[in-house]
Specification:
Elements: E1 23-35, E2 40-47, E3 56-62, H1 70-87, E4 90-92, E5 98-100, E6 110-121, E7 127-139, H2 148-154, E8 186-188, H3 195-199
Antiparallel strand pairs: 1-2, 1-6, 2-3, 4-5, 6-7, 6-8
Length: 203
């Protein structure tokens, strides 16, 4: 059998990289939907910049209603509110109080997504690896936590007060998840280059 594949829109260097590298990606939200299997909500983002263009990143957000204790439910609610604000789903209303759109409002909007590499010890003693969105790894394009170097690489304008002369902000660290055998999973920080490295050819 001869496979006929459309590779016209692919980057050759990334063809054998099945996991996204830890990095920041400019993406468009393409889908918001219920994950019935995991009883959660998922958001799909399509990468629209760089060698992983058209790769899909899926982000699972926990449903507070299925949490098995009150503390976890409160944490899930707080995270959803924070994510909703970053997506623009939750916004400041005319009375200066929070208001919200339906989450489908995010579809078609552009965001910067932070991907980290999660590693864990498997039951057979080997090491498992997977790319995942960091715990709060979604940023609207005007968010101040997007590092300056990342803005330049992705073609985003600098915010008022930002300059290439200063060091890039340190990205927030992601949180690991527990592996199936109980060992804590570790996450790799996202590399961010400085303004000096930018001048030498960042990207």
């Amino acid at each position: 059998m001869a496979f006929k594949l459309d590779v016209s829109g692919d980057d050759f260097a990334a063809l054998d990289q099945l996991k996204l590298s830890p990095d920041y990606y400019l993406c468009t939200c393409t889908k918001v939907y219920d994950d019935e299997k995991d009883r959660a909500q998922r958001l799909d983002f399509k990468v629209c910049h760089g060698p992983f263009t058209n790769a899909v990143i899926s982000w699972k957000l926990q449903n507070p209603e299925v949490c098995n204790d009150e503390t976890k439910a409160r944490s899930a609610i707080a995270r959803l509110k924070a994510v909703g604000k970053r997506l623009g789903v939750i916004y400041e209303g005319p009375d200066k109080r929070p208001a919200q759109h339906d989450w489908q409002w995010a579809v078609g909007k552009d965001y910067v997504i932070q991907v980290e590499l999660r590693t864990w010890q498997k039951e057979d003693g080997g090491e498992g690896q997977a790319s995942q969105v960091s715990y709060m790894g979604c940023f609207n394009l005007d968010h101040p936590e997007i590092p300056v170097a990342v803005r330049v690489r992705l073609g985003l304008p600098l915010l008022p007060g930002q300059s290439l002369d200063g060091p890039a902000p340190t990205p927030a660290k992601g949180k690991g998840k527990a592996s199936p055998n109980g060992a804590a999973a570790q996450t790799s920080p996202v590399p961010v280059q400085t303004a000096a490295e930018l001048a030498a050819g960042f990207g």
